[in-house]
Amino acid sequence: MPTPIQQLSDRLQQAFGSMLQSSIIALKELTIEVAPEDLSAVATTLRDDPQFAFEQLIDVCGVDYSEYGATEWDTDKPSSTGFSRAATESTGARLRFGDEPGYVSHERPRFAAVYHLLSITHNIRLRLRVYCEDEHAPRVPSVITVWPVANWFEREAFDLFGIMFEGHPDLRRILTDYGFVGHPFRKDFPLIGHVEMRYDEAQKRVIYQPVSIEPRVLVPRVIREDTHHTETETPVASADNSDA
């Protein structure tokens, strides 16, 4: 008998047909993908159609697929001898200050907005992903008219990833300062940032200046042999402890 997730996948395919660019079940979770121009229609149907009834938007997340699949530290064969995996960088996947990222993944656009939906009626969840077609000016339609709670979620994704949500009535930063430069969750954003703040005694105010922190290589945790379950010899009780 099909599982509830498989049944949902079949119903979505029948309802949306070619509008579904992808429908994947992994780890007992269903993820579907639609084009930006179909987002509003799909979202409205997901909310209003009784067979779906996704009344609640749990979250909206941004994703940056730059360097997708690249790794700096190979942990498939962990070292137990110290710093062999951290003395020097291997593939350059971790960006240092001033580094330019290389876009590795050619299977998908760089940016995507991901919507996490909950149907209270059917007690089931769904993940909806929409890729931004333009890497340099990523944008997708706002879903505020479908789920008003998307207001702050979309502002967060804009602030951290720079994704523009067309139709949002007040799209501005929500976590970083209004004068903040860049989007800190993008993978080309340096780990130490672009600027730092300090209080200037002469000017009697807080000022911005270039960062003065020296970049460093982070050392991964060394994985050593587990000896917690090693059998040890049980000590023999002393004769002095025997019963009289």
Structure, explained:
By secondary structure, the chain is of the alpha/beta class. It is 14% helix and 22% strand. The strands form three sheets. The protein has a five-stranded mixed beta sheet. Strands 6-7 form a two-stranded parallel ribbon. The model is unreliable at 83-98 (pLDDT under 50).
What key attributes describe this structure?
single chain; 244 residues; alpha/beta; five-stranded mixed sheet; two-stranded parallel sheet; 3 helices; 9 strands; elongated
Order of helices and strands: HEEHEEEEHEEE
**Poorly predicted runs of 5 or more residues:** 83-98
Strand content: 15-25%
Radius of gyration: 26 Å
Work out the helix count: 3
Describe the strand arrangement of the main beta sheet, using strand numbers: 1-2-5-4-3
- Assign the structural class, choosing from mainly alpha, mainly beta, alpha/beta, alpha+beta, or little secondary structure: alpha/beta
What is the first-to-last residue Cα distance?
70 Å
Task: Write down the overall geometry.
Answer: elongated
Number of strands: 9
Largest sheet: 5 strands, mixed
Mean pLDDT: 81
Summarize the amount of helix as a percent range: 10-25%
Summarize the structure.
This protein has 244 residues and is an alpha/beta fold.
What's the structural blueprint in terms of helices and strands?
Blueprint: H1 4-16, E1 22-26, E2 29-33, H2 39-48, E3 56-64, E4 111-119, E5 124-131, E6 139-141, H3 150-161, E7 164-166, E8 195-200, E9 205-210
Parallel strand pairs: 2-5, 6-7
Antiparallel strand pairs: 1-2, 3-4, 4-5, 8-9
